[in-house]
Every structure is written in structure tokens, then in C-alpha cells.
From TrEMBL:
Stated name of the protein: XRE family transcriptional regulator
CDD domains for this protein: HTH_XRE (cd00093)
InterPro entries for this protein: Cro/C1-type_HTH (IPR001387), Lambda_DNA-bd_dom_sf (IPR010982)
Segments forming domain HTH cro/C1-type: 13-75
Biological classification of the source: Bacteria, Bacillati, Actinomycetota, Actinomycetes, Pseudonocardiales
Length: 350
């Protein structure tokens, strides 16, 4: 009798997908290995062996879910994985359901709630938290009476860049840390004690000087290219397969279709007993997307679970993702979808 464990259950499920999802197709282990790429038939066999199963990495299960989400995988001369961007709404929903099922079987993994994984926005009691925004540049303020301190209508928040992200995050952190002193300031108004608290930096190197100072001090193989430096719209420069690649936002004429956002968490270079977090987009909707990835109640549990699975208890990590813009609104990125993740550091072990 095969061992009745979650590992064995996953092995049986993977075999059933190959043999029973489309029984008329006669998919072989060799067919599957060719479609997944960079795996051997022997490795596929080990994943399907319920008596002594080998656990495939999560990224391989993502491929399985995409492959078996649509019968269009059988179109053509050989089995293939349909690019995620070509899936229909129904196929994406089927892929998500299948991936949740496979993840739940992976080494006894049960989908974790937001409360069960390390909550990156909850800090130890009575530790100060400082949220740092860029000041809105003077040339953008001069036509706003609300941003003029001499105006009777002056509102200080109009002098902050990324106010959407600030309001979203400030309320969330206050709720998560009721005993902490949570403050927010612009980068040009910090006092020395602010630097040694838990630092959360909103916005990129174009306007936020503290983001620039921190990125220069941490060991992170990602460079943010400011707008109109090497590229008109800027982006994040990373290395992939030995080549330097610029991950850029996408436009249609002057309309933003997709921003690029980075979430970074590491040890603060100013106080090793505290953390620094960077939520950074090339534009404001990217910054808000990086924040909402772990505050939006519809996505935060799965995104927190993904970070837990992917990075474990790593002290420092970074993820760069797409932030789609629809109807002028930035959408919360789902990090569990491979096509949304543009770069991760540290790199996953093969």
C-alpha cells in the first residue's frame, strides 16, 4: 500500500493530472518533461511515485497548474505550456484553483491565513515606526494653493508625494501596532531618531532621498534607474542569465498601462535591531501596489504566504512585480502568479 501522507497524495494527484485529465491524449512523462523544460523523465517519475515521492518546487507546480488549466496545451505538434498572458478568464480561474490544490498538498502545506505567517507589518511592542515619503517637488506644488503654507487653505499632506500609499499604510500599521509610536514625515524633515526606528520608505530614488541613501548602503543587486536617465520612463535594472535587463513600466502613448514596483525588506543600515522596508514604484500607482500587496484583504494572505514559502525567515529579500493599471487605477499585484513576478532576490535554488 502506498504511504498515505501529503507527499504521497501530491504524487498521486500529479500522476492523475497526466493520465486522467485528458485520457484520450495519452500524455507521457516524456511529453510532460518536454513541456516543463529543464527536467528529466526520471525526475517527473520521482514526482509521481507515491511510495517514495520527491517534492517538486513550487515554481514547477505553477507550471503544472498552467499546463492543465486549458486543453489548448495540447494544440500543435507537442504538449506545451500556454503563456499566462494568453489564458482566458476562465482558464486563469481554473489555473488558480488547481495551483491552490497542489500547494495544499506540497509537503503537507495547508493554506495559511494572514495571521499564521510572519506579518511583515507587525513589529515588536513599543518599537517606533517611521514612514518616509518624498516631498512633492516645488514645481508641482506652486499651482496648488492647498500646498502653499501662506494660503489659508494650506493642507500639509498636499506637500507629500505618494499620499495614497501613505494613507493606506499608516492606518494599517497603526491598527497592527496599537502600542507603537507610528509617525510619517517627508524625507527632508527627518530627525536623527527617525533613522533608527523601523523605517518604511515610500517612493523611489527620483524624489525620495532616503530611499536613495538606503539602497546605496544595502547589498541588493537591483538598481533603480531614474526617469530620463538611461530610459525615458526609468525602471529597475537587474541581471538575468548573465545579462543586464531594465524592467520598465508600459505605456500606450502617454497612458500608463502597467507600472513596475519593488518591495524590499532588510536589516536597517542605521540600526541592526530594526528593519527597513522599501515600497517603491516608478510611478505612484506602483508604490501603492507595493503597499497594497500586503494590506489588501483580498490578496495579503496569499502574498504573505508566498513570501513565507519563497524566502522563509530570510533577513533581506526583494521582489519586483507588475502593477496593472486599469481605468486609471493601479491593481493589487498577486505575487503567487509567476507572470506577475519580474525579479526576486535572493534567487531561488534550482
Amino acid at each position: 500500500m502506498p504511504e498515505r501522507t501529503p507527499r504521497a497524495a501530491l504524487a498521486r494527484r500529479l500522476r492523475a493530472l497526466r493520465e486522467e485529465q485528458w485520457p484520450d491524449a495519452g500524455i507521457t512523462q516524456a511529453d510532460l518533461a518536454g513541456a516543463i523544460g529543464r527536467v528529466s523523465v526520471a525526475l517527473i517519475s520521482s514526482w509521481e511515485n507515491p511510495e517514495n515521492p520527491v517534492m517538486p518546487p513550487i515554481k514547477r507546480l505553477e507550471v503544472y497548474a498552467t499546463l492543465f488549466a486549458t486543453r489548448r496545451s495540447l494544440d500543435g505538434d507537442h504538449l506545451r505550456v500556454v503563456p499566462a498572458g494568453e489564458l482566458t478568464k476562465e482558464e486563469r480561474e481554473r489555473r488558480d484553483e488547481l495551483l491552490d490544490e497542489l500547494r495544499s498538498l506540497h509537503e503537507g502545506f495547508e493554506p495559511k491565513t494572514f495571521e499564521q505567517v510572519r506579518d511583515l507589518w507587525t513589529f515588536e511592542e513599543h518599537q517606533d515606526v517611521t514612514i518616509v515619503c518624498a516631498p512633492l517637488p516645488e514645481e508641482l506644488r506652486r499651482h496648488l494653493s492647498y500646498a502653499d503654507p501662506e494660503s489659508a487653505d494650506f493642507v500639509s499632506l498636499y506637500t507629500y508625494a505618494d499620499p495614497d500609499a501613505l494613507i493606506e499604510l499608516f492606518g494599517h500599521i497603526r491598527a497592527r501596532n496599537p502600542e507603537a509610536r507610528v509617525t510619517f514625515r517627508t524625507a527632508d524633515s527627518l530627525i536623527p531618531d527617525d533613522y533608527t526606528a523601523h523605517l518604511i520608505l515610500l517612493g523611489g530614488v527620483d524624489w525620495n532621498s532616503v530611499t536613495r541613501d538606503v539602497i546605496e548602503r544595502v547589498d541588493l543587486p537591483v538598481e533603480q534607474v531614474g526617469r530620463e536617465e538611461d530610459a525615458e520612463q526609468g525602471g529597475f535594472r537587474v541581471r538575468r542569465n548573465g545579462r543586464s535587463i531594465l524592467l520598465e513600466p508600459q505605456f500606450d502613448g502617454g497612458r500608463l498601462l502597467e507600472d513596475v514596483a519593488q518591495f524590499y525588506r532588510g536589516i536597517s543600515p542605521f540600526n541592526r535591531k530594526r528593519t527597513v522596508t522599501v515600497c517603491n514604484g516608478m510611478y505612484g500607482r506602483g508604490t501603492l501596489g507595493a503597499v497594497r500587496a500586503l494590506t489588501d484583504p483580498r490578496f495579503r494572505d496569499r502574498n504573505a504566504g508566498y513570501l513565507h514559502d519563497r524566502f522563509g525567515e530570510a533577513e533581506s529579500f526583494s521582489i519586483i512585480s507588475r502593477v496593472p493599471v486599469v481605468g486609471g487605477q493601479g491593481l493589487t499585484p498577486d505575487w503567487t502568479l509567476e507572470e506577475n513576478r519580474l525579479h526576486e532576490w535572493p534567487e531561488a535554488a534550482e
